[in-house]
Amino acid sequence: MKAKKLISLGIAGTMAVALLAGCSSSGSSSSTAASTDSTATSEASAASTAEGKVYYLNFKPEQDQQWQDLAKVYTEQTGVPVTVVTAASGEYETTLMSEMAKSDAPTLFQVNGPIGLANWKDYCYDLTGSDILGQLTSDTYALKDGDATLGIGYVIESYGLITNKTLLEKAGYTIDDIKSFEDLKKVAEDITARQDELGFAAFTSAGMDSSSDWRYKTHLANLPIYFEYQDEGITSTDAIKGTYLDNYKNIFDLYINNSTCAPTELAGKTADDSRNEFLAAEAVFYQNGSWEYVNLTQDGTFTDDDLAMIPIYFGVGDEANQGLCTGTENYWCVNSEAPEEDIQATLDFINWCVTSEEGTKAMAEDMGFVIPFKGAQESSNVFVKQDQEMTAAGKTPVSWNFTTMPSENWKNGVGSALTAYAAGTGDWDGVVTAFVDGWASEAALNATA
């Protein structure tokens, strides 16, 4: 049965949606290879008399160490062995397929939403009636297939333009001066005009290396989709029109022409390059998300007073009342093919993560997560607080619609077209073709799969 399922998944591999987020497919200094705390796990296994065990294939490289630490605490308290393996950035779907083919497969894994679930639902245990499902603050975060609950969203995140307020003030501006795309354009181009004098650029490099391109082919691409869905009154489509692709071009042009490097260099720029430029005060703006908070503050480079996150202004609608891009694509799924004792051990572990003092503290403080569970602790993450303040002030968050993108193939096509456009070897028409025609063709493949 398992072999047959994996063969089917292999056939559908070109349509698989890799998990992105905050995340994403988020770039991290630990993202170059999978990692596991194998020594701690083997010691726990040897000492444990528990029947079940947990193997978590973690999606988020930037929280690898925190998950390793939390797993160790749980094992010390319960005797249940917990292994955490973290997939390299941008490689989750490939890693998941490889690990699921093994005899000792992950008991806990992740999908990014309905399209990701379609590829893995035969492996997802029905969480209906589970303790953790009862802990959700809203059934909005329950990922369903018919009456079955096959995934649970475990973190809500935001992304936008992370801003070095100190550098912005050195350039003669504050975040209150930026309330629209035109405001952002004016500030960025002024900084570029005075770059030699100021000693810094407007934007970090918009790297199109695989560790970084998700920020543009997925997160930035979410905005034209969001605004089109708003116009059409829909939540998904088999045929995107591309109504707001001129706005997509405008913001991408702003990034690549007011950056720390020439557009022709972006193909080789990584997520680490972009983060390190920001850490080194080489640029004012850095498109990324709330998951980057720990990376930016843990060594004391920045304090909360130095940082802000502002919306990615897109030149559409009531920009002054636009909020951050806020949502989730991080859904826990329990492997239904695992032994019963491992399924129960996994259910117990994730419920402990969202209800215990140790688990909720680690997720809020160490990982910087907002979790949609009743026992959640308040996050110390300044970007999370700013999102909450914007929402309380009546600003409208931009929803995450990239879970409706038809496939990873589609994203890769858009990413390749963006890279060629930045390098001057392609034109914007190529991006439009990849975005619109590519969407239709991939959606058609999904319909016949």
Give the key terms.
single chain; about 450 residues; alpha+beta; 6-stranded mixed sheet; 4-stranded antiparallel sheet; 19 helices
Tell me what you see in this structure.
The chain is an alpha+beta fold. Helix content is 44%, strand content 14%. It is built from 19 helices and 13 strands. It has helices spanning 2-11, 38-47, 64-78, 92-100, 114-120, 131-135, 165-170, 181-193, 195-198, 214-220, 222-232, 245-257, 271-279, 293-297, 340-355, 357-366, 382-392, 408-423, 428-448; strands spanning 35-36, 54-58, 82-86, 108-111, 142-145, 148-153, 157-164, 201-203, 283-289, 307-310, 322-327, 331-334, 396-399. The strands form 3 sheets. Strands 7, 8, 9, 10, 11 and 13 form a 6-stranded mixed beta sheet that branches. Helix 10 (214-220) packs across helix 18 (408-423) and helix 18 packs antiparallel against helix 19 (428-448). The two termini are 19 Å apart. The relative contact order is 0.18.
Quick overview:
The protein is of the alpha+beta class. The protein is built from 19 helices and 13 strands.
